[in-house]
Write a sequence for this structure.
């Protein structure tokens, strides 16, 4: 009997040691992926925090390191310097940078059309593109919504010469709109609009620019060419985990809100953050035709290059393959 007990204890010890070794080896195999956002915390980033809280990245063998940003240029700069593995920023900025020679690529595009809307006052409501004629609209240099206003007018047969763009500092746009100094201002449905409507208690007439044909690439995951070569396996695992986190957030925006607010106590109310998260989920294209979430369409890149070329000198467009790769989205 004593011999049997010793055998059992020995077997248990071997099993425990094997499990400990397996766990240790899994931890050793986990690879850190450093992620830099292009801006401060907001609801758009909720799915990352839900995925981290639920262990989705850990299960994928990824140790996630998330960091706030201070603009797309700074984020891309840190990526090139090797301080980050990926940056999350509007795809249109990445496309412009790549055209200028920056050695980076879009490895996932979650918003082929940025969720930008034009909001107006009830007494001067802009509900269709044609309603823009005769109105004043706030504009700041580099602001995405109005930078491509001419293209939007052309798509919708609006006489843009009858739309007055009032140039001002980016921080002044919304206050000037609220004070009635301009008729229209552009906002992100996934960020500014929920905050503004909560703050004012108003529901503004809203014109969704994407619904009327303006496809400005939005949230994208961008990696350096060097990083793609060096950390392809980790980046594939990261993107696969993102896809699971995005779907989990679609199903439970309240949980994503709680996960984000756990690290963002100074943020807006839970109600506002949840609206931001839900608007983001609505703006992310669901997988279709056998392609995973984040799949980059070559046509979207070509159309975006035309948009960039309408506002700045880009020379001869580079081949589409220069701008993106879908290889890291395939398992």
């Amino acid at each position: 009997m004593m011999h049997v007990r010793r055998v059992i204890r020995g077997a248990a010890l071997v099993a425990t040691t094997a499990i400990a070794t397996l766990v240790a080896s899994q931890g050793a195999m986990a690879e850190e992926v450093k992620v830099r956002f292009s801006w401060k915390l907001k609801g758009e980033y909720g799915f990352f925090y839900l995925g981290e809280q639920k262990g989705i990245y850990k299960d994928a063998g990824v140790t996630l390191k998330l960091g706030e940003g201070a603009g797309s240029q700074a984020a891309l700069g840190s990526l090139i310097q090797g301080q980050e593995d990926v940056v999350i920023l509007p795809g249109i900025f990445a496309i412009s940078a790549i055209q200028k020679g920056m050695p980076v690529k879009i490895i996932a595009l979650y918003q082929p059309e940025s969720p930008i809307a034009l909001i107006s006052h009830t007494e001067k409501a802009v509900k269709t593109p044609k309603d823009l004629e005769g109105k004043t609209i706030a504009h700041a240099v580099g602001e995405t919504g109005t930078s491509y206003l001419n293209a939007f007018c052309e798509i919708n047969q609006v006489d843009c010469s009858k739309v007055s763009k009032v140039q001002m500092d980016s921080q002044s746009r919304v206050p000037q709109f609220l004070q009635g100094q301009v008729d229209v201002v552009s906002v992100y449905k996934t960020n500014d609009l929920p905050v503004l409507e909560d703050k004012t208690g108003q529901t503004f007439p809203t014109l969704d620019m994407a619904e009327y044909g303006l496809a400005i690439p939005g949230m994208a995951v961008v990696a350096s060419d060097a990083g793609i070569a060096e950390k392809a396996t980790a980046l594939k695992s990261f993107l696969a985990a993102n896809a699971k986190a995005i779907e989990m957030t679609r199903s439970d925006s309240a949980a994503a809100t709680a996960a984000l607010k756990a690290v963002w106590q100074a943020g807006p109310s839970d109600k506002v953050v949840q609206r931001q998260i839900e608007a983001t989920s609505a703006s992310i294209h669901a997988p279709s035709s056998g392609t995973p979430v984040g799949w980059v369409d070559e046509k979207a890149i070509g159309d975006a290059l035309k948009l960039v070329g309408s506002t700045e000198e880009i020379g001869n467009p580079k081949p589409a393959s220069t701008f993106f790769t879908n290889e890291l989205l395939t398992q």
User: Anything to note?
Assistant: Confidence is low (pLDDT under 50) at residues 1-8, 10-28. The CA atoms of residues 193 and 288 lie 28 Å apart. The longest strand covers residues 31-37.
